[in-house]
Amino acid sequence: MTTRPPLASRRPVKSVRHADTRIDEYAWLRADNWEAVMRDPGVLEPEIRAYLEAENAYAETALAPLVELRGTLAQEMRARIKEDDCSVPAADGAFAYYTRYDAGGQHPVFCRRPIRGRGGEEILLDANEEAKGHAFFRVANCLHSPDHHLLAYTVDLNGSEYYEVRFRDLETGTELADRMVRAQGDIVWAGDSRTLFYTVHDDHHRPSRVFRHAIGGDPADDVLVYEESDPGFFVGIDKTESRAFVLIVAHDTTTTEVRILDADAPSAEARLIASRESGVEY
Questions:
Q1: What is the C-alpha to C-alpha distance for residues 7 and 23, in angstroms, rounded to an integer?
Q2: What are 166's strand-pairing partners?
Q3: Is pLDDT of 247 > 80?
Q4: Which of 42, 134, 155, 241 sits a CA distance of 20 to 30 A from 191?
């Protein structure tokens, strides 16, 4: 191979930490606006983008002689995977819900079947179809409402892990106008099937807030339910097995703090179970 790898220019940047001086000659490759780049890769500085694209082009050139081998290895690995796999159906009301994968597909297909009576499989969301036309596509969560009429799901369209919350009417198959952006991916339905809780990233890509959305309402009017002020903690949401309570969980690696909301009273105040104590998980 005669192609030479690209050479990044050296621009020394000095930093002192704990009386230790370091020189980083490639600090310029870390974009100062990295938070904005996570939301919109198009705002990456042209000089940084040009260098990264040059690296990618060089990698493709270097690996070109191995294109057949790469294809063979990929086929061998896929041959060891059950591509047409399916989760165990979970009964809920009149339906059994499950997720399956089609042979050759790269994304899950979310489905349900009636438990009694007639009726075959109903595809709620085929992520393979939704992914068409997108360079990147990933579904993080897909949840039906308690009354089985609506579907809430979260999608990432650029690999930044900023998700968009979307809704689908399962009776008509139409998408609702409600769209929430910059979400973290966690979603939980309230018992009324008209209210959804979801988590949102802060500017440092940390899930730190929980919002409440009413179906049909303007996302700009969504209510902030909880915000974590400690930058060392992350926030997640869940639901108890009884489905009676929505859980708001603040945690770091060794400590948890949980608040609960009555799932049938989504506008009520969240109640703290026990104040956080460093090193204690519950």
A1: 18
A2: 153
A3: yes
A4: 155
